[in-house]
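STRUCTURE:
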C-alpha cells in the first residue's frame, strides 16, 4: 500500500534531488525477459534524463529492443533505530530518505550538437569547477569523441517522488525522533531534523 503522505509532486523538490544525485539506477528489459538494473551517472536537463557510455553493451541492446525504461534515484538520510520510540519492540525501526521514480522512453541522441549540450550539462554537474575546454562539435579534438560516445535521452512520461521524512508522526513521536537524532549526531542527522521540520505538516503550519 502506498503511503500518500510520503508522495511528493513538487517538481522543484524532485528536480533538486535529481540535480544533487550523481548516479541512479536504470531499469531495462533483458533479452531473456528479466528486468536488468544498471547503476550509472546521469544528468537531468531540459526536462529529460541523459546518460552516456559505449555504443555497445547489454543496456544498449536492451533499449534498442525495448525502449521503455525506468530510472530511480534515492538518497538515504538517516536510519531510525527502534529504541528512539520503543525500548522493547523492533517494529518502529525505519529509514528516512528521498527517492524519485521515472518511467519513460529511451532515445539515442545522434545529432552532434545535442550530444555536446548533454555532455556539457554532465560536466557542469560533475565538474563545476571547470578546468576543460568547452565541448564543441567543431573542435577537432572533441568531434571524434562525440561521434564515438553514445548519449541516451530518457523522454519522461511519468515522474513521482517519495520523501519519507516523518510526515506520519504525531507530535510526541516527532519530538522523540528529533531528540534521538540530535543526541546521536551523525553526519546527516542535523539535516534530517531540518527536513523533518520542513516536510511534517504540523511544523509547516507553525513556520
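SEQUENCE:
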Amino acid at each position: 500500500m502506498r503511503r500518500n503522505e510520503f508522495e511528493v509532486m513538487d517538481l522543484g523538490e524532485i528536480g533538486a534531488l535529481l540535480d544533487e544525485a550523481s548516479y541512479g539506477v536504470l531499469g531495462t528489459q533483458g533479452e531473456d525477459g528479466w528486468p536488468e538494473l544498471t547503476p550509472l551517472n546521469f544528468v537531468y536537463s531540459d526536462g529529460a534524463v541523459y546518460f552516456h557510455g559505449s555504443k555497445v553493451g547489454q543496456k544498449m541492446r536492451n533499449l534498442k529492443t525495448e525502449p521503455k525504461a525506468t530510472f530511480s534515484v534515492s538518497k538515504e538520510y538517516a536510519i531510525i533505530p527502534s529504541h528512539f520510540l520503543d525500548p522493547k519492540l523492533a517494529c518502529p525501526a525505519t529509514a528516512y530518505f528521498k527517492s524519485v521514480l521515472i518511467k519513460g522512453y529511451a532515445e539515442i541522441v545522434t545529432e552532434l550538437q545535442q550530444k555536446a549540450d548533454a555532455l556539457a550539462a554532465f560536466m557542469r554537474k560533475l565538474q563545476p569547477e571547470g578546468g576543460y575546454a568547452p565541448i564543441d562539435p567543431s573542435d577537432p579534438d572533441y568531434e571524434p569523441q562525440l561521434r564515438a560516445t553514445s548519449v541516451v535521452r530518457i523522454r519522461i512520461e511519468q515522474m513521482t517522488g517519495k520523501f519519507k521524512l516523518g510526515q506520519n508522526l504525531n507530535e510526541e513521536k516527532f519530538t522523540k525522533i528529533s531528540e534521538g537524532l540530535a543526541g546521536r549526531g551523525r553526519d546527516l542527522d542535523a539535516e534530517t531534523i531540518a527536513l523533518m521540520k520542513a516536510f511534517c505538516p504540523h511544523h509547516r503550519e507553525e513556520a
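REMARK: The first helix runs from residue 11 to 20.
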